[in-house]
Specification:
18 strands; about 45% strand; eight-stranded antiparallel β-sheet; Porin; 3 domains; about 425 residues; eight-stranded antiparallel beta barrel; globular; single chain
Length: about 425
């Protein structure tokens, strides 16, 4: 359904159509769409149609609810018999699209998609002749449908996979305990094996590669003995040099498969499972979503209630430690709702104290249903609350929309992926 602004002189329009496209990776996809107008009873076609394309950015690629952002453009074409509210005929209306929505998974290939889009149109001029955001008029389109993936390989969900996941969790818990003992300086020869429920040969295990820390691999019931030079591995039947080469090659292949680029070797440090530094956790190679950050807040002058979501796509590069933060926010007030979506660059640092507080500053650009294109600045901080397994990372921020002409105060939670 489309609710046109009164200045466009078009009545509320119900639509039916389809979208199709390809996904470039887990987070970015291209979509083409076509729809036709229908009457309020969905019984007959109306005298208008539309087509165009959109770029879809997924903020969550895991199971459950997956929010996404949309940006694109299209054209509404009117047939010869169509007349507007003034009784005049129309030829076409071009528009820019900015929106978002959520997908609810129903299985490996099927999901429900709900979306809200703002179609930016002009009243007296062509959209290519726009020189000011005030010349654009926002028209809201709401959609719901079923999405079916074709050609994608579904993720297997079997009882065996569940058992493997449970066993991996137990082994990781045992490794945490063993790591604590090693920190306390206990003799490695006296530390019991981390996991007893081994798989009968041939043995295959998945070794999680930590972003910061070390990997400890041991083999056999009497896997190690203390020497003056540290811990020496004595595998039966495998020379020491050959085993080290095998381990290096296996780890290298796993890192390449995960998209992690090797770096220069550094001094090994104990693995930090809980409370790891945020900057190290954010610096993941590639452009997969590292965190999903829902938030709420309010705006002053004019007053609005805000509801939004952010993502963290990681740093630009090792040489440029600036995080890429996509953002979309809905504003609710006594007037019409507003929508703003954009991209931000964030630079953060640690205070270097026992408190897990990480201030940051950010700057970005956004498309808005009010001002079309805005330059946004902001500052804030992330901080941890709780302890042990119940630690949660929250954030607060003051955002200056349109270079601090409007002030927003937001707060939310960071959900690492």
């Amino acid at each position: 359904r489309i609710d046109f602004d009164s200045r466009v002189r078009l009545d509320r329009q119900y639509t039916a159509g389809a979208r199709a496209g390809v996904d470039l990776n887990q987070n970015v996809g291209l979509r083409a769409f076509y729809w036709r107008g229908v009457d309020s009873d969905f019984g007959e076609w109306d005298e208008l149609e539309s087509y165009g394309a959109e770029l879809q950015l997924a903020l969550n690629t895991g199971p459950g609810i997956s929010p996404f952002l949309l940006v694109g453009g299209g054209r509404i074409a009117f047939k010869d018999d169509f007349t507007d509210l003034d009784g005049l005929t129309r030829d076409r209306e071009d528009h820019l699209t900015l929106g978002g929505g959520m997908a609810i998974g129903l299985g490996d290939r099927t999901r429900i998609e709900l979306g809200a889009r703002s179609l930016f149109m002009t009243v007296d001029e062509e959209i290519g002749d726009v020189t000011s955001p005030d010349q654009l008029v926002a028209n809201w389109q709401y959609s719901a449908g079923i999405s079916v993936a074709l050609g994608a390989r579904p993720r297997p969900r079997t009882a065996a996979a569940d058992r493997d996941r449970e066993r991996t969790d137990r082994e990781l818990a045992a490794l945490r305990e063993e790591n604590e003992r090693l920190r306390r300086g206990e003799d490695p020869a006296r530390v019991p094996a981390a996991a007893r429920d081994t798989i009968p040969a041939p043995r295959t295990i998945l070794v999680p590669v930590p972003e910061v820390g070390e990997i400890i691999l041991r083999y056999g019931p009497e896997y190690a003995r203390a020497t003056g030079e540290g811990v020496r591995v004595d595998p039966a039947g495998i020379p020491q040099g050959q085993l080290e080469a095998m381990i290096r090659e296996a780890v290298r292949r796993e890192m390449e498969r995960a998209g992690i680029q090797p770096v220069a070797p550094t001094r090994p440090q104990p693995v930090t499972v809980d409370g790891e530094p945020a900057r190290d956790r954010l610096q993941v190679a590639g452009r997969r979503l590292n965190a999903f950050m829902p938030y709420t807040g309010f705006q002053v002058s004019p007053g609005k209630f805000l509801l939004g979501v952010r993502g963290d796509l990681g740093v630009i590069s090792d040489a440029i430690p600036v995080d890429i933060i996509p953002d979309v926010v809905f504003g609710l007030s006594d007037g019409s709702p507003t929508l703003m979506g954009g991209i931000n660059a964030r630079f953060g640092w640690s205070l270097g104290t026992d408190w897990n507080v990480f201030p940051y500053i950010e700057a970005g650009a956004a498309l808005s249903s009010n001002k079309f294109l805005t330059a946004n600045l902001g500052y804030g901080a992330e901080f941890d609350i709780g302890s042990g397994d119940s630690v949660r990372r929250l954030f607060v921020q003051h955002r200056g929309v349109n270079a601090f002409r409007e002030h927003q105060f937001i707060g939310g939670i960071r959900l690492a992926r």
